[in-house]
Design goal:
247 residues, Rossmann fold, globular, binds nicotinamide-adenine-dinucleotide
Length: 247
């Protein structure tokens, strides 16, 4: 058990990568707070964990709302007394070419992906500083390299990298590590809407010849949350089947 009795918050735990991560963490002994704006989805993930005799609790959170992020951490501390791991995974996309991108599409993506990451980091880092230990893993994307139709999303994820690297510097003295993962194309509800021809073209460009399964991203989350990653901080790790190599 690599996370025995660790208290972990996973945002966006109701779907895709967050759900796979919550399930994996629980199978490794963690107590998982399954946080999602979709309350029913968070509850379903927590129920699946409990059915497998793991420990979980669902909590509704809107990460773009600072008060909601603070309440998530406060409730976690009230119930579990500490917070060991934060997986900042909640995210959205609202794709459009810049010529057509409306201000509300820009604002929505920045407020969930970037400000949401800031909000939960800000709330979670305080108890971690007091404990003198903690693991934060934020979610960037291969889109930071530039991706047609994703100016808002790419900018939000590039912002997450700046936030991650700076927090890593500032929190290292408190033994809190802060890293980011940058997935390539992962088979989740977020990518389910890509038209089949576009998906085929995308897969052709991936050196390993396929999209990732959410469980393959959960594996990296587990490693970064585990004791084995104690000396890794401020890093951005691409999990993209080689898509960024030579790009
Ligand atoms: N799927 C991919 O190919 C891919 C690639 C790179 C990065 N990512 C990133 O990985 C993360 C997870 O993506 P996914 O593919 O599993 O997506 P998903 O759509 O399957 O799941 C995202 C979850 O986040 C939740 N969420 C959305 N807004 C929220 C909010 N304001 N507060 C709390 N929860 C909220 C949703 O309800 C959902 O359960 C995202 O940050 C995404 O940008 C995904």
């Amino acid at each position: 058990m690599r996370l025995n009795d660790k208290i972990a918050i996973v945002t966006g735990a109701g779907s895709g990568i967050g759900k796979a991560t919550a399930l994996r963490f629980a199978s490794e002994g963690a107590v998982v707070v399954c946080a999602d704006v979709n309350e029913a989805a968070a509850a379903a993930t927590a129920a699946e964990i409990e059915k497998a005799e793991g420990k979980a609790r669902p909590q509704k959170v809107d990460v773009s709302d600072a008060g909601s992020a603070e309440a998530l951490v406060k409730e976690t501390l009230a119930r579990h007394k500490r917070l060991d791991v934060l997986i900042n995974n909640a995210g959205i996309n609202r794709d459009a070419a810049m010529k057509k991108m409306a201000k509300d599409q820009w604002d929505a993506v920045i407020s969930v992906n970037l400000t949401g990451t800031y909000n939960v980091c800000r709330a979670a880092m305080m108890p971690m500083i007091e404990q003198n230990s903690g693991r934060i893993v934020n979610t960037a994307s291969i889109a930071v390299l530039g991706n047609f139709g994703q100016a808002n999303y790419a900018a939000s994820k590039a912002g997450v990298i700046g936030l991650t690297r700076t927090m890593a510097l500032e929190l290292a003295r408190h033994k809190v590590t802060v890293n980011a993962i940058a997935p390539g194309a992962v088979d989740t509800p977020m990518t389910a809407g890509i038209p089949p021809e576009a998906k085929e073209q995308l897969v052709k460009r991936i050196p390993l010849g396929r999209m990732a399964r959410p469980e393959e991203i959960a594996g990296l989350h587990l490693f970064l949350a585990s004791d084995e990653a104690a000396y890794i901080t401020g890093q951005v790790i691409f999990v993209d089947g080689g898509l960024s190599v030579g790009a």
